[in-house]
Amino acid sequence: MACSSTTKSELDPCPICLNPVEQVAYLDRCFHVFCYSCISYWSRLVMGKQLLSSFKCPLCKTENFSIIHGYTGYSFQQDYVNKHNKQSYLSDTHQFRLKFYNTCSRMKNGLFNVQQYWKCHRYLRKNIWLKAWLRREIQALSQEAEVDIVMHHIHGMVESFIKSKEKEGRKCTPEQNCNAFRHLLLDAGRPFLQGQTEQFVNELEQFLASGLNIEAYDEACMKHFTMSSSCETKENDNEVGSLSSVDPYFLLMIEDSNDAE
């Protein structure tokens, strides 16, 4: 059953129409609740023909950038006031991470020993950089700025897994723990990341296995990517005598990574 239908009777009346809330919608900064049609109309009315990036909540006057609606417990929709506004939140690092995801499936090996991570039970150690890393990765993959709902959902799954293993002890094999973790995170991430979910979980394992902070992990990824790119370029050059058969998007990746150094 959809979230909007189950909570409708429990919510206060919509502050705009004063009727029971229809199609529950939240503002992304203050989280005040309105009918989706009411707050959408309000935002258009307030904005007029101005190309603003935000509008004030009619209740608390907090500046908000988007309207969140259609939340089912697994997914949601997000309407930005200015559709181009979300791009301003995304840095060059976000863009590199997105490109990295788009090509990392071609790389034969990961950076870090994930098997050792599970074998030595290092998954029980708290990672203080995980929330920030998750937020950055989800922003890059979704091309959305406001991803805290998704970030907290996935981070909660990781925390839940760790707590269950602390209580359970070391009954399961490393392979069983790894498979259970992956299935849990794949199910948690798929409604939001869709076709990118498996690569995201692969990267999450790599980040956790690394034990590095975000900056050091990014540096390792850049070096690994540059080396892998150079090797693939040489292989293609030997096979066809030129780079004409290489995916132009992949060539752009090599060029961008070289410029970054």
UniProtKB/TrEMBL annotation:
PROSITE patterns: ZF_RING_1, ZF_RING_2
Keywords: Metal-binding, Zinc, Zinc-finger
UniProt-listed InterPro entries: Znf_C3HC4_RING-type, Znf_RING, Znf_RING/FYVE/PHD, Znf_RING_CS
One protein family per Pfam: zf-C3HC4
Zinc in keyword set: yes
Molecular-function annotations in GO: zinc ion binding
Lineage top rank: taxon: Eukaryota
RING-type domain boundaries: 14-61
Designated name of the protein: RING-type domain-containing protein
Organism: Dioscorea zingiberensis
